[in-house]
Each structure stands twice: as structure tokens, then as C-alpha cells.
Amino acid sequence: MKEKVDRNLLQEALDLVIHRFPTLTVSLRKGLFWDYLEKNDEKLIVQKEETYPCAPIDPRMNSGYLIRVIYYGRRISFEVFHSLTDGSGAMEFLKTLAYQYLILKGNTVSPDGLLLLPQDAPGSEEVEDSFEKYAYKNDKRNIRLKDGAAYQLTGSALATTGINIIHGVIDGSALNRFTKESGSTITAFLTALLIKVIGSSHYSAREPVTVALPVNLRRQFPSVTMRNFFLVVNVGAEVNDETPFDDVLEEVSGKLKFRTDKKNLQMGINRHFQLQRGMMTRLLPIFLKYPAMRYGFNHIGERTKTMTLSNMGNVKLPETMAHFVERMDIALYPTRKSPISCAVGTVNGRMTITFTLSISETDIVRDFFKELGDLTGLDIEIYSNEWGNSDE
Amino acid sequence: MCNGRFSSSDPDLEDDFYPSYDGKVFGKRQAPRIAVFAGMAIILACIFINLIVMPHFLWVFHATGLVVYGIISLNHTILSKSHLGSKIVGQVVSLTLLFLLMDSQSGFLKWSINYAVPFLIVAGLVMVTLSVLTSRLKWKGHVSLTTMIALSFLPAALYFSGYATVIWPSAFASFYAFMLISGFGMFARQTVWAQLSRRLHI
């Protein structure tokens, strides 16, 4: 925001908007075959930020909620357990919260049809399982695009468990014009740049550098669900120091276009539906499901990617609300096998590229921003939570 | 990115983008591990001293029972964030075992199975009932209540198998459990089925 956040007004705004989002106001309960979500009527208290972003949410210390609203200085943050919603759902919540907060501050803002209003009742289509809606139920083929092992990033774990966050703020409109001129997209451009940077200076193995890209399915399969509705596509390339960036960009653009083709995404939706609804999956007790899922996550999902890049795109705010907002950023939690993640968010033409690291080495991030500045000629403002400096 | 600070940061100046982490501790709580380690050290020391000083009288069993009970009480009842029902069950079970151990090590006069254990179980059952009645009936409440009801028939089983010799404390525990099952079945049936269907859906 452009002004310091008022805690009391933020709490008041949260109290007013929270029941507009029934898929988020839940607690996790243990079942025999599945864990399930149960409505939570407790009051959710806003918290002043004291620890690092994406710190584990302990439901017992958070009135049973799997979401957290945090403030610090001029920033309002919303953190959410990924089982409840994806980036689009989280963004809808944050937009409505900020809208209500600005109204309580005495500002005149109008929604302009760009956000969910706190006083409206949630529609049934907002809580639907869109995978079930769009899946071809009879498509039993388990067609999977085979992804081989990818180059894995390694580094020295931070001495204190936490996340080092590095943000780079750039003129998003100018970057968009630049990538359009080169016949590409911002996502393809940033993906290619990451692959090039990692491949050039950190690459000694034979595996390709692969970036996992979450794809918002709502763009091709119309849905207003607040539940998860995304798929992850992997895009990789084998590069070295001598591979020209334009070649990497061309390869990445081609692969990204193919993988995000509607036909391929439909196959992904079908596969997701079959996996979830398969009799074997359903009848397996939860204490066996968890190790199986953990194994699948670590040895199939994590092994096939070098890192994740999530581009939320340009978030549109009502004109009367936009000038109260300075910028937005998104932070993805890094994992043990994927210790660096990247997320991109744009509002009011300002793009924030956020790296989250659980390792102390920052050379990839430094090289990425240096190359980005050199290639585009744009200024980049860098700031960080400086987690890790306290370890010294 | 250069492994150095971008600028000086004042923890009181909230115009910074993030709070200062200097001086904050984010480590894990060590008390439960220290308690287990200290308990094991005490037990080993007791075994050593008992075998050397007075091997004809093995008081080490009393000491071990008390130390293990102390560790369970500290880690599970006091420090743990477990459900209240499970803490009550934990106390009843560990105290029952402690009483049985002490009674058996001091000539087995049966004060434990005749009086102490039945009344302990009834006390636990009353506490679990109150916790379930005063707060919303949750799954862990059901589990604690069911475990306590099952335990309530232990004194009767001990009496009919000939170990216990006094009937009325065992009968009282069983009667209380029967009354609770009846009330539970009559008043909480709908809630129970709703909970079960949620827990067991595939």
C-alpha cells in the first residue's frame, strides 16, 4: 500500500470479508481414507509479521485456520495452505480484503466488476471442483508426457531455518513491450533467462535445466472457482555457456506453446481426475496415502524440475483502488529438492520478480537480475528480507 | 545478493519492507528431549546405585516408575499441545501402571486394583465427560471417551478374573460407563453418525 497499515481497520475488514470465502474458512480434520475440511467459525486474528514469509502455519496457534493475514509497515500479506486454493483464489481474497480495508479507511473506491464483494453471497460455482466439471470422465488412458530427470540445484542450507526473499521490481509494461517485439511472452522470456543463467554457470551434469510452470486453467476452461484449478507444465532445455539466448528463448517458447495447448491441458485435467477418483486411490487408507504421495512428490514431481516459476500475470484493480496500491509480490515456498523458487506479479504496470531461497548461495539470483538488466536496458530495484545475514 | 546488507535497518522503523530478525530465536523447543535424556540418565544411575549398594532390595522399580510417570506428565500432559481428552487418558493409563507397579513391588496387597485403579478410572471418565460436554464434540473427544469407557470395564474384568477382591468400586465404574453409553446413544447419536460418515468417506 502507499500508507502504513492500520491493524484495527485491517482486523475489521477481515471480519467483514472472511465469510465471503467459505473455501478458505475451514479447518483440516483427520479421516481414515482422506483428510477433510470442516467449516471453521472461530475468529481469525490478523498478525503483525515477525518471522519470515511462508513460515509453517500451525493451525493450533491460528484458531484452526490454514490461512494467515499478516501486516508489516505498508504491506498486507495473505498466506494460504495450497490445498485450499491456488494463486488466483488467493489473489481474489486479497483484492476483496484490500477493497474493504480502503473503504473502512474512508476512501471512495468502486469495485467496477473486478472483485468479489464482501456483502454478496458466495455462488455455488465458486466452490465447485472444476477438474470434475471439465474432465472427460470416460477417458481412462493415463497419457502422461514423460519428463526425465532435471538438473537439481544444490547449496548450503541456511543456518537458521527460514527463507531468504529477494525481490526485483521492474517496469512491467516496458518488459511486456520488449518481449512482444522479440515475438515472445513475458513467461517464456523469464523462463528462458532462468534456464540460460543456470545452464551457463551452474551446469556440470547431463540433465536439462527444467522450469516448472503452474498454468492457470481458468483462462482456457472458464471457471470462477476459488478452489485449486491449475496444472504444472515442465519446460526444459539443454544449454551451456555458448548457447545463444535467442536459441534458448525460441526452444522455450515452442515448448511452452505446445504444453499449454488446450488439448494437452485437457489431457492433464483428465489424468488429474482419474488419479483422484481411481478406486485404488480411494480405498488406500490415509496413513498409506501420505508416504505414497510424499514419494511421488520427491521422486517424480521434484526430480523432474530444477525450479518453479509462477507468473500470476497482470492483476487488474479498479481504477479508484489502483492508486492506493504501490506494488504486489508473490512468494512461493522453496522445497528441499528445489531450494530456489521464483514468482512474478504485476500491478499498476510494476512487476515484482520474487525469489525465495532456502540456501545461502544467491549467485543465480544475482546473475538473473544482471542479465535481465543487460538484455532489456531496464532499471531493476532490488530489496530483500535479508534472512541469512542474521546467521553471520 | 552480495552476502551483505543492502542498507542499515532499524527494527523500530516500520518503513522497512521486512522486520529485523536480529536476536530472534527460531529454533525448536528442546525441553521434551532434555526431559527424556535426563530421565534416562536418572534411571541408569538408579540401576547402578541399587545393584551396587543394596542388591537384595530392588527399589529401582519404584524409582523407574516415578521417573517414567514424570516424563510422561511433563512431555504429554504439560508441554504437549495434545487434545485435553488424550491428556486425561494418558494420565489415567500411566497412573494405573504406576499404581500396579508400586503395589506389585510392595507385596501386592491389591490396594491398587481394588480401590485406586477403579476410582482413578471413574475420575478420568468424569473429566472426559465434562470436557466433551463443555466444548464441541470433536473426533478426538470421541476417541478419548471411547477409550475411557473401554477402560472402565477393566476393574470389573479384574474382579471376575479373581485378581480384585472388592466388588463395589468395580461395579461403580462399570455402572457409570453403562450410564454414559446409554446417554451417549440417546443424545449424541446424530452427531456421532455425522462425524463417522465424514471420517470414513472414500
Automatic annotation (TrEMBL), chain A:
It comes from the Bacteria. This is Alcohol acetyltransferase.
From TrEMBL, chain B:
It holds the Pfam family DUF6320. Keywords: Membrane, Transmembrane, Transmembrane helix. The chain crosses the membrane at residues 34-53, 59-76, 88-109, 115-134, 141-160, 166-188. InterPro entries: DUF6320 (IPR046283). It comes from the Bacteria. This is DUF6320 domain-containing protein. The lineage of its organism: Bacteria, Bacillati, Bacillota, Bacilli, Bacillales.
